[in-house]
Amino acid sequence: RKAVTLPALLKMCAEGRKIAVLTAYDASFASLMDSCGVDVLLVGDSLGNVAQGRSTTLPVTLDDIAYHTTCVARGNKTAFLVADMPFGTYGTPEVAFDNAVRLMRAGAQMVKLEGGAWLTETVRFLTERAVPVFAHLGLTPQYVHQLGGFRVQGRSTEDAERLKADALALQAAGASLLLLEAIPAALGKEVTGLMSIPTIGIGAGPDCSGQVLVMHDMLGVFPGRKARFVRDFMPGQTSIEGAIRAYVQAVQDSSFPASEHCF
Ligand code: KIV
Ligand code: NA
């Protein structure tokens, strides 16, 4: 296939074709996911959980993400490659830009940042300087100690209104994609309807423009607690390739997420 670009993702969204996203941390899995038609590979700071065995993403460093981004970039040929900016690496626009440049030099084509309206200045600063931005709202795991755990967000009217205002502010500041994590499916649908940029959901219902899962979760190899929004795609398959293809198919035909994966 041709290389997946940001305009191609926007076109998919406009045409109602769902975007399939998976996390990747190394060259071999990146190569396999790319050849299975995964549209976007995310070098997530979830590597702190799944690769480093930590209980939060907070200790993950810029060096960690840069290293894994170089590995994924070597294995990937056509998928769009996004890298997470770790906790503490985007506190000001200038710091965010310098750190984003490192990840872009490592092979990222976009960076993802957790947070709401306070980030608009940073999003504008980055996008003006040629760094595309993927905003992340809802359950933002870097905020775990402020949120008091990994719990569903946007349940109250007040929280839902704030999330919608944040989403619109981030879009207006230049964000090109919006990740929605662990929010009620009805809110995922509402936000997606409000936005002109694609929304990628994880526990945000079936109406987002696309879906993402952590690869260890969708292959059933993560030993920790399994979130409600996770589906293990290995059962019924005879290979990892089969499971990844089944995931892409299920996102494309909207059979994933089913109601049992939603809030
Ligand atoms: O780090 C990560 O894996 C993420 C996800 C939302 C999948 O940010
Ligand atoms: Na992340």
Automatic annotation (TrEMBL):
CDD domains linked: KPHMT-like
UniProt keyword terms in alphabetical order: Cytoplasm, Magnesium, Metal-binding, Pantothenate biosynthesis, Transferase
Binding site for 3-methyl-2-oxobutanoate: 45-46, 84, 112
One Pfam family in the UniProt entry: Pantoate_transf
Pathway linked to the protein: Cofactor biosynthesis; (R)-pantothenate biosynthesis; (R)-pantoate from 3-methyl-2-oxobutanoate: step 1/2
NCBIfam families membership: panB, PRK00311.1
Family: Belongs to the PanB family.
Function of the protein: Catalyzes the reversible reaction in which hydroxymethyl group from 5,10-methylenetetrahydrofolate is transferred onto alpha-ketoisovalerate to form ketopantoate.
Name of protein: 3-methyl-2-oxobutanoate hydroxymethyltransferase
Organism encoding this protein: Zoogloea oryzae
Name of the gene: panB_2
